[in-house]
Amino acid sequence: MTNPSASTCGIIIKGGRARDVPLNDEAWQFFQALRGGSGERPGSDYVFRDRKGLPRELQRCINRACRELGIGHSRVHDFRAAYANQLYERLVEAGASDRQARREVAAALGHGRVDVLRHYLRPK
Question: What pLDDT shows up at residue 39?
Fold first, then answer.
């Protein structure tokens, strides 16, 4: 993980590309605690045990929190889609064209192609 003062987290995404993901202070602290508390890889830069995705116990925590909050979705990908839709709406409301908004959302999600957004954006 990168320097907390930079407010980003360096990750490796699909295809082996490196990417910096912006994090607020609360998110940074959450991942630091998760990394330090797992005991899986002392001194490792990795938060999660392996490259196969979220460990089952974290997914269980997400599911439980969603139930308690009355949130219908509980997969991480659903949260990405919700973020993409909210960001798109904010950009358009702020005056961005559909094309500009789609480019910014694609970049925020780490996609090089705008057409990938068909999996995320849902028209109102």
Answer: 44
Angstrom distance (rounded) from CA 124 to CA 121: 9
Per-residue pLDDT, 1: 42
Count Cβ atoms within 10 A of the Cβ of residue 47 and give its class: 0-12 exposed, 13-18 middle, 19 or more buried: buried
What DSSP string describes 27-48? Answer: HHHHHHHHHHHS-SSTT-S-SS
Q: Taking residues 50-55, report their average pLDDT.
A: 59
Contact (Cβ atoms closer than 8 angstroms) between residue 9 and residue 28: yes
- Higher per-residue confidence, 84 vs 27: 84
* Bridge partners for 17 per DSSP: none
Nearest 5°: the CA angle 15, 83, 49 is 45
